[in-house]
Specification:
Blueprint: H1 8-38, H2 50-58, H3 62-71, H4 79-86, H5 92-99, H6 107-116, H7 119-132, H8 155-159, H9 165-176, H10 181-205, H11 217-227, E1 242-245, E2 260-263, H12 265-283
Antiparallel strand pairs: 1-2
Helix pairs in contact: 3-5, 4-6, 5-7, 7-12, 10-11
The chain binds zinc ion (2 copies).
Amino acid sequence: MIITTLSDKDLVSRFEYFGKMTLRYRYRVIGLLPEVAERKLYLRRGCASIFEYAKKVAGLSEEQTSRVLNIAPRLSDKPALRSLLEEGNVSVNKLARVVSIATVENEGELAERVQILSKSALETFVRDYRVACVPGHASAEVSLGDKPESESLFKQERKNIEVAPDVADQLAILRSKGFDIDQLLRELLAKREEDIQQKKDDVGKSLPEESGRYIPVRVKRVLMEEHGTKCAKFGCNKASHEIHHTARYGVIQSHDPHLLAPLCREHHELAHLLDVKYAEMHRR
Ligand SMILES: [Zn+2]
Ligand SMILES: [Zn+2]
């Protein structure tokens, strides 16, 4: 058949079909690579190195080959992730992202996530996981209260904290009178936190039993007071994109502000992808 006689639709569908197959086979060939390297089978084909062999046979760049050879030994005690690599079910790039947080305990859970999350959602997931620093536990759900131990996260932001001259004057006067101004500010911040929680309790109690999809203004207002215009996820400074129901709205039909969080696009996507997977697992 002459290609030029194909309709646009047929041409593009053919292109995409073979494109998909190309990726699929590339993953498979990458999955076989560590074992071929280990058994030094490239020598039998007259190649001096696995890099030369992989390039010749499968068109893999040195970078791709060294990435997979780097990852493979780190998966030797992690059978679920290892089989994803060997069977070519996910890209090495995605595996490279999770391998940094994978442990013998969490690798099963990570193997599931790596299959359902998009690359950018996975990146966010891994970053959050590192921040949360919970050893051996793969849960980096949209847990909003978890404040990480590491202060280094805000080192940069801390440098930019400046107060207005009138505030500085008042603080200076207080300090000269012997007050511990750090302690005063800590108490002020704790009070703010307490007030917001109290308001959330009050707003939550005032909600009608039956509520539609529409989120009442007073709920939105208290969320705004708590999070400003940014994503509620700790450490994320992106603009909030949507108010997310942390308890699935389909199950608990409530707009209680304790169950709501404004999230950025990425964290919102992540929350829903994990949510869908969770629902699937429990339906089985
Ligand atoms: Zn949502
Ligand atoms: Zn976010």
